[in-house]
Amino acid sequence: MSQTxxxxxxxxxxxxxxxISRAVKELGVGDELRVLASDPSFRADLEAWVTKxxxxxxxxxxxxxxxAAVICKQV
Amino acid sequence: xxxxxxxxSDLEALVDRMVxxxxxxxxxxxxxxxxxxxxxxxxxxxxxxxxxxxxxVFSGEMDTLFAACTIASGAAAMGMEVSMFFTFWGxxxxxVKKTFAGKTVGAKMVAAMLPSGPASVPTSRMxxxxxxxxxxxxxxxxxxVQSLPEMVKLVxxxxxxxxxxxxxxxxxxxxxxxxxPGIDYGGVATYLADAAKSKITLFx
Lengths: 75, 204
Known about the structure:
The complex is a heterodimer.
Chain A: E1 3-8, H1 15-25, E2 32-37, H2 42-53, E3 56-63, E4 66-72
Parallel strand pairs in A: 1-2
Antiparallel strand pairs in A: 2-4, 3-4
Chain B: H1 8-42, E1 50-57, H2 62-77, E2 81-86, H3 105-113, H4 131-142, H5 148-157, E3 161-165, H6 166-171, E4 184-186, H7 188-196, E5 198-203
Helix pairs in contact in B: 2-5
């Protein structure tokens, strides 16, 4: 179970979700992706994306607009 | 008629066998129907929409085209099959160059009045004779938002199906070599076939 990091800071919708979907495609089931982002709509979009795609959102931290989320690939 | 004498255990075994045969016969019928229904549900049964989004892109302004491309990319990133049908002003998004040679006078006039591609489309409001788009492009750049030409490239990269409407192409005198290579061409039935099985259908 590996963890890869994806830096989406400074990117605006829809780029964070597009990059995340590409990155998660490359992972194996059980692998994790740690995403850094700054877009205010990131949290809502990320939650919608993981629900639709059937993955798990393991953690979400936010401090002064800088966000870090960990996704675990489930399918 | 012959009379056969069976022991109790033989009789029980015979009844057992007959019941099992009858039940299996009935079960087989049920199992076949179940398999058929499962197959239908999996394949959409002709009535269940697929995980698919279809967009008609009729408008040709920077803001409307940008919205169309954002929705299409988002849908593709969420695992959906996406098609975009570009018609009339929407064809501006697919244009890579403008040619005049070999066109009728009418077609040349239309060519002169249409933008040469997604980089030079007006905004739907506040166009202010061309100042609007310059202003908005600057704002977008400041916020690191993709430009419209970048979004058109992105939808292609994400495997979104791009279809140009043959009829409006003809009316506006736009030729295939003026559009992006590798796109599909079709008519209204091409659009409707995709739209009829889509969960999401939009007219932009």
